[in-house]
Design a protein that fits this description.
Distance between the termini: 41 Å
Structural class: mainly alpha
Shape: elongated
Largest sheet: none
Number of domains: 1
Radius of gyration: 13 Å
Number of helices: 3
Helix content: over 70%
Length: about 70
């Protein structure tokens, strides 16, 4: 694998972590979390990893139909 392929794979795994976190969160909540709460849950400090985790979280929340 090239470095770029490794980075793409790593970022896809990080996005899935965000998805999983949203599923755990939404199991106990009925209201869609706002951007501040999403940021509070995000374990990544910055850069592409933080963005991809947040994207996964938001996609999962949208898919679950939170209000």
């Amino acid at each position: 694998m090239t470095t770029m392929e490794n980075d793409d794979f790593r970022l896809s795994r990080i996005e899935s972590e965000g998805w999983s976190a949203a599923q755990r969160y939404m199991a106990d909540e009925t209201v869609k979390p706002d951007d501040i709460r999403v940021a509070d849950f995000n374990p990544y400090g910055g850069g592409a990893a933080r963005s991809r985790w947040a994207a996964g979280f938001r996609k999962a929340v949208a898919t679950m139909g939170a209000k």
